[in-house]
Amino acid sequence: MNKAATPKQLGRLAAGGLVDRGQPLSFSFDGRSLEGYAGDTLASALVANQVRLVGRSFKYHRPRGLLSAGGEEPNALVELRGGARREPNTRATVAELFDGLEAVSQNRWPSLRFDVLAANRLLGPLFAAGFYYKTFMWPAAFWEKVYEPLIRRAAGLGRIATGPDPDTYEKAFAFCDVLVVGSGPAGLMAALSAARAGARVLLAEDDFRFGGRLLAERRPVGDRPGHVWADEVVAELKSMPNVRLLRRTCVFASYDHGVFAAVERVNDHLATPPEFEPRQRLWRIVSRRAVVAAGAIERPLLFGDNDRPGVMLAGAARAYANRYAALAGRRVVVSTDNDDAWTTAFDLAAAGATIAAVVDSRESPPVSAGAGLPWMSGAVVRALGGRSLEAVDVRTAQGGAHRIDCDLLAMSGGWTPTLHLTSHQGARPRWDERLAAFVADQLPSGMAVAGAANGERSTAEALAAGARAGMAAVEAVGLRARAADLPSVPPEPTAQRALWRMSGSAGKSFVDFQNDVTTSDIELAEREGYRSPEHMKRYTTLGMATDQGKTAGVNGLALLAERAGQPIGRIGTTTFRAPFAPVAIGALAGPHCGAEFKPVRLPAAHRWAVEQGAVLVETGAWLRAAYFPRSGEKDWLEAMTREVTTTRSAVGVCDVSTLGKIDLQGGDAAEFLERLYVNGWKTLAIGRARYGLMLREDGIVMDDGTVSRLGEQRYLVTTTTANAGSVFQHMQFCHQVLWPELDVQFVSVSDQWAQFSIAGPRARDLLRAVVDSRHDLSSEAFPYMAAADVRLADGTRARLFRISFSGEFAYELAVPAAAGERTVRWLMQAGAALGVAAYGLEALGTMRIEKGHVAGNELNGQTTAYDLGLGRMLSASKDFIGAVMARRGALTDPGRPRLVGLAPVDRAARIGAGAHFVAAGASPTAANDQGFMTSAAFSPTLGHWIGLGLLAGGPERLGEQVLAVDLLRARSTLVEVRAPVFVDPAGDRLRV
Amino acid sequence: MRIPCPHCGPRGHEEFAYHGDAAPIRPDPAAAEAERAFGEYVYLRDNPAGLHRELWYHALGCLTWLIVERDTRTHAIRGVAEARANHAQGQAAQ
């Protein structure tokens, strides 16, 4: 930007403030080039440039200016940056200014100054409380075509970026004895007291500068400016190794047992983050004690047109003047029901503004106010002006009416303690009539509140309360605290008599500026029966959206209480929920996006599979080879067909390392297996494997797999890939909770072993090439279901199992994971002469369907052993998990959907899993449903599609034809019910 | 929520798997009316507002099944013990 062209900062004071006049920063607002200083927020720089109109309101598109100087800002929501970094709904009051910042106002069309939809104001009655439920009810057809586009155009809150976020986010963990939230006078004293006692202290400050309210006040602390005192305390804290200071860090949530969440805006104050640095960092903070010193938020007064640009909270006007040396107006009226706003009058007068009047709703001003400022007892009843304030109408206590010209109205309805963090676990605050505020009542264990957040409003009270809270916290963690010297502070009046509403006010009085909720909306809601704060919130939308009613909440409750004729304390508050302030989804996701969304498990031979050109598929956390396409093969079906054909005619190799493997040992290992599985184990000889089926205690099938007996007291249990974790947990439950008296130990060895299936008529020839020739692999010496420790020819120790999932003559060879890749390469090399093919999950799945083996599709958490044709495995002579419940009549009803095989009557037809069965000719309704197809595959062996399915009374209906209705794929296929084993039902191939 | 594991110290609850009420004891399958007893064991659970003895498994830690005494209203944890120790007590009570 051309700095010479930027106008002077006409609202900037010549001296003072915490901005660096030696560091000018260029920025733009709605395309206008402007200049601010280092130390500014976007909002303070706008004030310094006398920009008053910063946005349009949500429903009525009314012109709006800055209301606040902090995170509670309801009006000044802007879009920052551009392109993929564009962020909507950013509060200008917390956006730190940087050189080149581009900000754009929102919710206006075509421009901020001229907004077509401001005509919504004329439609005001349409947008009253509950308008969502009333105005747009009918005709229903209007919703999509008329109402929704209208509302979307009218009520847009900014535009999101459409490109992927180019920045990175990270997560961090912190542990401390004492967490202090907020670095105002209370927070600094709490941190200092705790740190000096030796506690591990974490001090988190939302602002980019430590000091809280001290930065915005002229009141001296310890005989020096408050910010100087704050800097000294921060310097001492920084010098201590037991203290961590986090600025630009918003603690936005409080959880049980001292856990907090915070977001650190590490690089939001730069145009782009430096290389290798995150944009933001999400903290999880685990604390033993916490001191919430989060300050307080000022309330607006409710009077006609109280939303005109130029009507500002008194504390904010003071903060802009004192901290940022930016004057929000030259001719000022202060309207208040409390002492604090008088400080604004004095400070603005000292900064050179003219105080036209202080209007105090009480009969007399505070004692210290006798400094010659013009004042009157009464209240502002209406603000005048359009895009900028021009005058206010005042009604005096005596009944007089005055119109006072002004360009700034600094208003104060008192201060609401920021107690959100004390309520996130459900505690309800208590109404304090003297403070006219909700304060924390029952605090979560380990938490204290100090300072303005606890209604301790004066600086002196806050300092003392902070010191007390810090000392109490360190004593609670077993350290000795010594009383800190409190700096001296001049006396400060903090009295208030709450004025909830001006009588005789004209025009709209806004309670919730962000949602355009007015006093009459709340009255209407109450009249229509929405008398609980929660109902009122939802009906009027008061307290929703980005500011969550930080300036609106208590005023709304007070009005509701007044209408209902009840004390505010009885009305109560709505529930405080995290997050306290908006948090970017990117920060919550942290680095876990894209390929890093979740961890990926890779089998030991993954690199080999990739080299073979395998197409990979996610199965749970695992990445596995689906098939190994060769040149000339046009799709997965061709590759799978070749892999199956090669395996069934020669030999195939498949990586099955993902199966769960559990090494079980102990004197009671066999007894343990007896109780885990439905079938018996005591007869299993050393060196033999057996198929096992496991139920849940409710009688439903949990998992299946093989168990091999490796030694007198040692077994290797395998589980399905999907259930490896849950079966291990189940075994731990059975051992630790049910039968700790059993002498067993077990450990997961899933990752320690790589395992390969070697299947097909030439499998033994292939194995002979790699297994040490000392081992006799003949069927006499190593028959079907044999298991043994072996050595490979190169000396690698291995385990060999003669088990088969494919239905072929097959082995599974397990080697230590480190040897997995070299072993599979060796198998493929040695098998080249035999015509070996690697096969993937597609071929594996097809062959198990051909063989009628059940897998995850059938073990779906709803099927019994009986349903799967495995009912005879259930031993009647022993107890096992699920034994009693599996006997229930309904679980053994022959009419249940039970496993069958299916083949299309028209052999050329294709069938798919998920199709539901109805009788031929019946309509596809739920009432006619007879079950569904669980698995389907093209069978290269048979040359047509086949399926497995659960069909009501299935095994008794072999030979019948039913209709498989696949609504998802829009096809219905007549299928023939068959026995589920399509290939080698007698099992001859296994026993060669 | 932080759960003080007797082996690992206080750890975040996301390291644990929840298994609900610790009170049900697996019935004797040989007893009369075993099916009814198992039905209650499998399906019936109390859901008290207040102190609750419940099973937690330290899945991402020491793999121990724990009995945690937790106030369901406040999440305050009164005690944590190994489930296997509890079992011995439970059997003695039976």
Can you give a write-up of this model?
- The complex is a heterodimer of chains A (992) and B (94).
- The model of chain A has no long low-confidence stretch (mean pLDDT 93).
- With 992 residues, chain A is α+β, with helices and mostly antiparallel strands.
- Chain A is built from 22 helices and 48 strands.
- In chain A, the strands form twelve sheets. In chain A, strands 8, 9, 12, 13, 14, 15 and 27 form a seven-stranded mixed beta sheet that branches. In chain A, strands 17-23-18-19-20-21-22 form a seven-stranded mixed beta sheet. In chain A, strands 39-40-41-38-32-42 form a six-stranded mixed beta sheet.
- The longest helix of chain A is centred in the middle third of the chain and has 18 residues, at 459-476.
- Chain B is globular and about 45 Å long.
- Chain B is 22% helix and 35% strand.
- With 94 residues, chain B is α+β, with helices and mostly antiparallel strands.
- In chain B, strands 3-4-5-6 form a four-stranded antiparallel beta sheet. A two-stranded antiparallel sheet of chain B has the order 1-2.
- Chain B has one domain: Folate-binding fold (2-Layer Sandwich).
- Chain B contains two helices and six strands, in the order E-E-E-H-E-E-E-H.
- The A-B interface holds A 255-259, 284, 286, 425, 445, 697-698, 725, 729, 732-733, 736-738, 740, 879, 883-885, 887-888 and B 1-2, 10, 12, 17, 19, 26-27, 29-30, 34-35, 38-39, 41-43, 55, 57, 59, 63-65, 74-77, 82-84, 87-88.
Poorly predicted spans of chain A? none
Oligomer: heterodimer
For the residues shown, what is the average pLDDT of chain A? Answer: 93
- Can you give the helix content of chain A as a percent range? 10-25%
What would the CATH topology of one domain in chain A be?
A: FAD/NAD(P)-binding domain
List the domain count of chain B as a whole number.
1
Number of strands of chain B: 6
Q: Give the helix proportion of chain B (percent range).
A: 10-25%
- Please give the alpha-carbon distance between the first and last residues of chain B: 33 Å
Radius of gyration of chain B using CA atoms only: 14 Å
